[in-house]
Amino acid sequence: MEESDVIRAAQLFVEARRSGKPIRELPQACRPAHTRDVNAIVDAVTDILVREDGETIGGWKIGFVFSPRQVPMICPLFNSRLFKSPARVPLSLTPALRIEPEISFRLKQDLPARAKAYRAEELAGLLTACPSLEIIDSRFDTSLRSIRQIIDNPKTRLEAMADNNTTGAYITAEGRDDWQDFDFAAIKMTMRTPSRVIVESTGGHAFSDPFLPCVVLANEMRHRGGMRAGDLLVTGSFSGFFEVAPDEPVTAEFAGFGSAEATFSTTSTK
Questions:
Q1: Are the C-beta atoms of residues 14 and 131 closer than 8 Å to each other?
Q2: Domains of the chain in sequence order
Q3: Percent of the chain, pLDDT > 90?
Q4: Per residue in 6-41, is it b (16+ CB within 10 Å) or e — as a string?
Q5: By the 8 A CB rule, do 135 and 241 touch?
Q6: Half-sphere exposure of 216 (CA within 13 A, CB side)
Q7: pLDDT digits (tens, 9 = 90+) for 103-113
Q8: CA-CA distance, 90 to 111, in Å (whole number)?
Q9: 149 falls in which pLDDT band (50, 70, 90)?
């Protein structure tokens, strides 16, 4: 993509965030054709929000399209959208009412930029693992097509990912240092409300172990300034996302490991 088209796409996403008015679609010239274009747009949005709106970064999310020659997609997690479980997340902040269960990781010390690759055994000792919930949202107009339809359509998937990888907000419970004693590929997960079970799964992460993409993320970020102690590393869901109702607690329970809870609140403000 031309740099001017990257900047224009970023400006449209920023305007949608600030105004609450969704984008119907990106102009043809501003649509990413490669995951490198996705990252360029995300980086440009991040630059504007940090410089002009005072946003600060509390973590990083990595995603993949599982296609040759497509680099991983990386987006920041802004502190203004990070919550501790149990959380009441303002519906005005993330109105899409879609949520998914995850295990995230938190760095216990800085992970500096360096030439040498980070190895899995080195990285594992620097992380705690946290039961988590990710709220999915979009700056696109979903009145005619849902977030799921935008993501599943090959023609619009990268546009969806350029929108901060569809992240709306993120909720974490207390982390555990003994996470390596758990087999995440076999762990039972139940996401529920007080009135119903939303989804159950055994394992379900795309990499079987949500830690594995952390190694890729660490090695991408060593070329981009590194990461800091306290940063979250987010690597994907155990089940995909589901629509829920406002003002009803949603809990993701990982059997024997822990749980995270969030409510889309019609009255709360952060």
A1: no
A2: 59-265 (3.90.850.10)
A3: 96
A4: bbbbbebbbebbeeeeebeebeeebbbeebebbbbb
A5: no
A6: 16
A7: 999 999 999 99
A8: 32
A9: very high
Give mean pLDDT, residues 204-219.
Answer: 96
Q: Tokens 């984008």 map to which residue? A: 23
Neighbour order of strands in the sheet with 258-265: 87-90, 258-265, 250-254, 188-192, 197-202
Angle formed at CA 107 by CA 192 and CA 182, multiple of 5 degrees:
50
Tokens read off for 265: 């609140």
**What six digits make up the tokens of 261?**
């809870």
Amino acid code (one letter) for 41: I
Report the Cα 54 to chain-centroid distance in Å. Answer: 20
**What's the mean per-residue pLDDT of the chain?**
96
Of the pLDDT bands very low, low, confident and very high (cuts 50, 70, 90), residue 67 is confident
Residue 66 has pLDDT above 80, yes or no: no
Over residues 78-91, the mean pLDDT reads 97
Angle CA 121–122–128, to nearest 5: 90
The strand ranges marked E within the chain are 57-63, 73-78, 82-84, 87-90, 98-107, 111-112, 127-136, 167-172, 188-192, 197-202, 226-227, 232-234, 242-243, 250-254, 258-265
Token pair belonging to 239: 């089940």
- The structure tokens 């990461």 sit at 227
